[in-house]
Design a protein that fits this description.
Layout lengths: L1 H4 L3 H28 L7 H30 L3 H4 L14 H10 L1 H14 L1 H4 L32 H14 L2 H24 L4 H33 L4 H28 L3 H30 L4 H17 L1
Helix pairs in contact: 2-3, 2-11, 3-5, 3-6, 9-10, 10-11, 10-13, 11-12, 12-13
Pfam families: CAS_C (PF12026), Serine_rich (PF08824)
Organism: Phlebotomus papatasi (Sandfly)
Protein name: Vinculin
Length: 320
């Protein structure tokens, strides 16, 4: 078991991070689409979509719990390798078994949800005409629809602060300060953006939604960079810092994707330009990081090459 697990250990960890991130984003998007069914003309959409989204949310919870359990234990041979069992006996599934089993059953749930949303996109996603003044959402007291399913419902400052505090408290102590800085920067950027220009309702909704997504992915990026720098500080060979470098690039790539989505959907030209400029700069930083990480691996243990690699990763943190 140990011989089979050792060569693929870092690939397993990378696959788990990708699965957790992609599944969470898809589940959140599905929940947003479900919220939009309340305003669709066809009221049968919510009945059909709700079980599909529920399946994704359940899978998201299971994947998060299993991967978090492995993160706490450590992605090492000592914690993940299991001894051979005697014929006729079977060990209970551990967190890695649960993660793999859940991933294997996801294909059909993802296909059905994506197919349904794509097929009904024109009913689920409608832009408000610029010539029409958007109505202010009013409280729904009839109990037909829970508020947390409303895609366009904006969180209050208190609710956002409470969630951020919960995330910060759940992080390891050495990462909490980084998360506090990210939240502070996001709040400062949001205040500066709203003070500089008037945005229509669609733009505000879009920016608020993806601001929350950005904070989440910034948290992932911070953790990835921290883990990467720890491998360098402990003089780990290329096998390990290459694997950790993949996590950094993956996390940064998610932020570039968010920037691209917002750029393509925001109507305010100056906001579009600023977002595109930031996304392009981060994309260029990723390319430089990949090149310098490969160079460091080829010239290892060259101090200069390793330092250039570290500098490129630090540049990504600044650009993000």
């Amino acid at each position: 078991m140990r011989d089979k697990l050792d060569p693929i250990l870092m690939d397993l960890k990378l696959a788990a991070v990708r699965l957790r991130t992609a599944l969470h984003d898809l589940a959140e998007f599905g929940e947003g689409a479900l919220g939009n069914t309340a305003k669709a003309d066809d009221k049968g959409l919510s009945v059909k979509l709700r079980p599909l989204v529920r399946a994704l949310k359940d899978a998201d919870r299971l994947v998060h719990e299993a991967s978090h359990c492995i993160d706490v234990q450590g992605w090492t041979l000592e914690t993940l390798a299991r001894s051979e069992t005697k014929p006729g006996t079977q060990l209970p599934p551990d967190s890695l078994d649960q993660l793999i089993a859940c991933a294997q059953t996801l294909t059909e749930d993802v296909r059905q949800t994506a197919s349904f949303i794509q097929g009904n996109a024109t009913l689920l996603f409608k832009r408000i005409s610029p010539s029409v003044t958007p109505q202010t959402p009013s409280n729904n007291n009839n109990g037909d629809w829970p508020e947390d399913y409303d895609y366009v419902c904006l969180e209050s400052k208190e609710a956002s602060a409470r969630k951020n505090a919960e995330i910060r408290d759940a992080l390891p102590s050495d990462l909490q300060k980084n998360f506090e800085n990210v939240v502070k920067n996001a709040e400062t950027a949001a205040i500066g953006a709203t003070a500089a220009t008037e945005l229509d309702a669609n733009d505000k909704t879009l920016l608020v939604y993806y601001a929350a997504q950005t904070v989440t992915h910034m948290n992932y990026l911070t953790q990835a960079i921290d883990a990467f720098l720890q491998t360098v500080e402990h003089n780990q060979p290329p096998k390990f810092f290459l694997a950790h470098g993949k996590f950094v690039v993956l996390s940064a790539h998610n932020l570039v994707n968010i920037g691209d989505i917002v750029h393509r959907n925001v109507t305010k030209q100056d906001v579009r330009g600023n977002i595109l400029q930031c996304a392009d700069a981060l994309s260029d930083g990723m390319k430089a990081c990949v090149a310098k990480t490969k160079k460091a691996a080829q010239h290892f243990p060259s101090v200069n090459a390793v330092q250039e690699m570290v500098d490129s990763v630090v540049d990504i943190s600044h650009l993000a």
